[in-house]
Amino acid sequence: MNRTFRVANILGIPIEINVSWLITLVFVTSALALQFYPETFPKGSRFRDDEVVHWVMAIASGLVFFASILLHELAHSVIARRQGIPVKNITLFIFGGVSQIGGEARRPLYEFVMALVGPLTSLLLGFVFFGAWWLTGHSDTSPAAVVLEWLFFMNFVLAIFNMAPGFPMDGGRVLRSIIWGITGNLYRATRIATLVGRGMGYSLMFIGGAAFFGVLSDWISPWNGAWFAILGMFLESSARQAWLQARAIDILGRYKAEEIMNADLETAEMTDALRYLTSRGGLHFIYFVADPEEQVVGVLTEKEIADAGEGATETKTAADVMRRTDQVPIATPREDGASLLQRMEADSLWHMPVVSDGRVVGVVSKESLLKLLAQGLFPQQQRPGVAT
């Protein structure tokens, strides 16, 4: 279920589809084609028993609705990038879509706008589909009108549902931005918003479980109850992970690059064979490649070697695949660990050089950041009677 496929690139943002999305697409189109649309057409309509029309309507509805979700996520991503926050990708999956945004907003107002723009986009799309439905005669006998009616209704539902105040949903992010603005404390705001999100998740699981076992059969079908329970588990898990991420940012934010970095730099010559460097470097490494005058002209990591393709280690040298120094992301000595880890994750890096006054003074590794994080999240308890 974790496998994803890249299907497009919009505004420089990769669009990916998780295989779990196919489950939702099949479920939505099947429910529309087999139950909803046949019952929507009035008796006597020539489309009421036309299964081909029902399936065409259902497939079109499902694809356009997921395109609406994609536009919803694109709105978040565009605002994030305008704030200087990197966007790794947008992924459609079983519960809709998610923007992989590599950082936090710098101010409460920025967070508020970035969160609110998604539901506003869905609301706008709802009005667009409503206008098209009205202009086509808002008839319950026209397939096009029936599809447009479903689309405007579902986009309104999407906007309202996403404004539920449970983090990490859009409404939860709006709630966090408001608490952040009032208290001036992002960490505390995240704690409160994620607790609300987990509470909503547990509530959905309870309601869904009760419906599944027939306790709420007069209001919710067992099948919908199961869906509520699954959605609740997802929301609770997402809120818990968001809190852990906030704790991680708080822990790593206490350290500066100059405190974490390793000042011992691994060097290589331009003529060194990749075969030799990979055998010497291990799984993750970084070499500073020097020219004959001993000036650093490039950086070489396992990433550049992997991008060179199969067989490169047997035929190429450091000079052939290295990344030139002016193309390498760098850190400053005072940059905090949270920012470093976020940038490494966004660029898929394991090492980042630390530069001061134009000179490389050390290297921060993702491994060292993760060790600090583990020590902060899971501090070892002292043994009784042992002084430390």
List keywords for this structure.
four-stranded mixed β-sheet; single chain; 14 helices; elongated
Description:
- The structure is a single chain.
- The strands form three sheets. Strands 1-2-3-4 form a four-stranded mixed β-sheet. A four-stranded mixed β-sheet has the order 5-6-7-8.
- It is built from 14 helices and ten strands.
- It has helices spanning 20-40, 51-82, 108-135, 143-162, 170-183, 186-212, 222-252, 257-260, 274-281, 302-307, 312-315, 318-321, 337-347, 366-377; strands at residues 4-10, 13-18, 87-93, 96-101, 267-269, 286-290, 296-301, 323-324, 351-356, 359-365.
- 57% of the residues lie in helices and 14% in strands.
- 35% of the residues are buried.
- The protein has 388 residues and is an alpha+beta fold.
